[in-house]
């Protein structure tokens, strides 16, 4: 049952007008909190955006009005070391979260937490979509939600009753992902061309937004040019200095 739920995931970008209650959101967040956490740091916080003006501003800054304005709930997931810092200060101690390892701990904690929230939501027949567009304007969004030093918004998630049924994208074959004992890079010369053809057929045959595109070409375009280069300076400003 759980495996079927996981393999049926598809992002939902159009929702019915059916808001989630605060109690329902809290239930999903509580489920999220039971994700694994490195050393039990729990380096995350989430902003439930219920204010209409703030939601509209978030939609503008993230450049994603359709989903953010129509969803039943909008959550902004943040890496959070400020709470830990406050606990240390109360004991007359200090922490240093500026190192690259702590950045990785925080990002991993947030991702695991958010994915638990997503699975919990989908188990209740809601649809979800991650919104990376939050990183288009992290400083402005931090001001919007009064985020202190030690806190950085990483992405948002829209949740709601789906108003469309998207097809599940074909994933890479398991052979491309699963290696035994050693990393086998030789197999990609056979696997990738076949997967490119599968994805091109998918993109041309899906119900909406058809396009002629192979996976390799799409990834080359996506990763061929630096994106959101402001993130390094923003993270440094928030206390994450990559030391």
Tell me what the structure shows.
This protein is α+β, with helices and mostly antiparallel strands. It has two domains: 2-167 and 227-237, NADH Oxidase (3-Layer(aba) Sandwich), CATH 3.40.109; 174-219, no CATH class. Helices cover 47% and strands 12% of the residues. The chain is built from eleven helices and four strands, in the order ααβααβααβαβαααα. Strands 1-2-4-3 form a four-stranded antiparallel β-sheet, with helices on both faces. The chain is globular and about 60 Å long. The termini are far apart. The mean pLDDT is 95.
How would you summarize the topology of this molecule?
Elements: H1 2-7, H2 22-32, E1 44-48, H3 52-62, H4 65-70, E2 73-80, H5 82-90, H6 100-123, E3 127-131, H7 138-144, E4 151-160, H8 174-177, H9 188-205, H10 215-224, H11 230-237
Antiparallel strand pairs: 1-2, 2-4, 3-4
Count of folded domains: 2
Shape: globular
Question: What fraction, in percent, of the residue positions are helical?
Answer: 40-55%
Task: List the helices and strands in order.
Answer: HHEHHEHHEHEHHHH
Q: Which key features would you list for this structure?
A:
2 domains, 4-stranded antiparallel β-sheet, 47% helix, alpha+beta, 11 helices, NADH Oxidase, 243 residues, single chain
Nutshell version of this structure?
The chain is of the alpha+beta class and 243 residues long. Helices cover 47% and strands 12% of the residues.
């Amino acid at each position: 049952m759980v495996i079927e739920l996981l393999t049926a995931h598809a992002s939902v970008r159009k929702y019915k007008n059916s808001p989630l209650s605060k109690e329902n959101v809290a239930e999903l967040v509580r489920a999220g909190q039971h994700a694994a956490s490195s050393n039990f740091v729990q380096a995350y916080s989430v902003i439930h955006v219920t204010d209409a003006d703030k939601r509209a501003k978030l939609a503008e800054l993230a450049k994603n009005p359709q989903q953010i304005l129509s969803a039943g709930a909008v959550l902004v997931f943040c890496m959070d070391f400020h709470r830990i810092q406050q606990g240390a200060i109360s004991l007359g101690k200090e922490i240093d979260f500026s190192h690259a390892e702590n950045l990785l701990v925080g990002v991993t904690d947030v991702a695991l937490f958010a994915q638990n929230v997503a699975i919990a939501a989908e188990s209740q027949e809601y649809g979800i979509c991650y919104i990376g567009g939050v990183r288009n304007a992290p400083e402005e969004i931090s001001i919007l939600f009064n985020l202190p030093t030690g806190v950085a918004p990483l992405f948002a998630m829209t949740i709601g009753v789906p108003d469309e049924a998207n097809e599940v994208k074909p994933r890479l074959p398991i052979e491309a992902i699963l290696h035994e004992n050693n990393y086998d890079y030789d197999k990609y010369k056979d696997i990738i061309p076949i997967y490119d053809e599968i994805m091109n057929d998918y993109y041309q045959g899906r119900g909406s937004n058809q396009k002629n595109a192979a996976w390799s070409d799409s990834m080359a375009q996506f990763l061929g040019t630096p994106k959101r280069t402001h993130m390094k300076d923003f993270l440094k400003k928030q206390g994450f200095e990559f030391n």
